[in-house]
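Kindly go through the following sequence and its backbone structure tokens. Advise at your convenience whether the structure tokens fit the sequence:

___
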Amino acid sequence: MPTLSFLLRPFLTGVIALRALGRNKLRSSLTALGIIIGVASVIVMVAVGNGAQARIEARVASLGQDLLIIFAGNRHSSGVNGGTGSASNLTIGDAAAIAREIPDVVAISPEVSTIEQAIANGRNWSTTIAGESPDYLKIRDWALSAGAMFGERDVRAAAKTAVIGSLTANKLFGPINPIGQIVRVKNIPFVIIGILASKGAGMGDMDQDDRILVPYTTAMKRITGEKRLRSISLQVSSTDRMAVAQAQITDLLRQRHRVPTVRENDFHIMNQQEIADIAGSITRIITLLLGSIAGLSLVVGGIGIMNIMLVSVTERTREVGIRVAIGAQAGDILLQFLIEAVTLSLLGGFIGVLVGIGASKLTAIFTGFDAIVSGGSVVLAFAVSAAIGIFFGFYPARKAALLDPIEALRYE
């Protein structure tokens, strides 16, 4: 019998606690509302942060695979730093030396670019004119939707051939197939031989489909008139070899540019992992910030539970006195009020999870912005709501358990 009584006590205490919540349905619902809002906010904010991170990672991946980009260095003049790219000290010879002497480089593209007005089919459109090599598509992991890429013969001849981006093609030709059509840039006619497959926005929200590719020699001789390169893009044989290749390229370019040992490089090399790390660290900070702000509402909800439970203890002082008088122990009183607090918190957490997932889906539908709900954020938000119920419910429950039964019976 003592064992049966020991098992029945918690059960009966739980029943009493649930009945007490049922007697005040409106107050219980409003108390749980704070937890519902808090849990839902955490899930939505983390989902938005995850979506932003996934989008940035996709844009970084769209740049290419195992990518290194060498930028021209900065020019110093009279104490003024011109910034990256201002020195224009990269040459076609540098690109050729890298391709010849660095064994891990499997594809390379010297690059020049400018923004010019393109004219075709009675229309005009301001777009990026990018001078590249035939390896550009391999480096950037970019396919053609139609036609072909220009070749090494076109590079050597500085041929007037072009590959057009899908957005530029639509702006200039509409429904007309641009293959074989003429597009004029600075009044120079280029024959379109290929169309790039659509890639959408890249880093910085620049539309990668808004461009025209031409051989880099053609761009330098016929469009920009530049003798130097803006950058050099290259692909390394594997991710594991990127650090080695980057070090070898650095040594080679320092030798070619005769950079003294005591001076810094007159060029800058950025690898794809650095770009991904920078973007990833930013999105992680944003996600943490959003989650922390939403988490504050969970704390506020917990304070609301404690406040209501304290009021409940005061209102039910006489009830507590009666229960103690007929044999209830302090532990039973403590457990009863703790069950009430935890039940409100868990119920609010469960509903909050459903609301948060639904709100995340609606956010994705109506804004077009990816909101990725992670299982970890759901479990964490629910666990925190339970912990808040225990933490903020313990003090009122303990206060009820410590009531003097004689004083409680006298309370009106």
Summary: The CA atoms of residues 46 and 288 lie 8 Å apart. The longest strand covers residues 105-120. The chain has a mean pLDDT of 80.
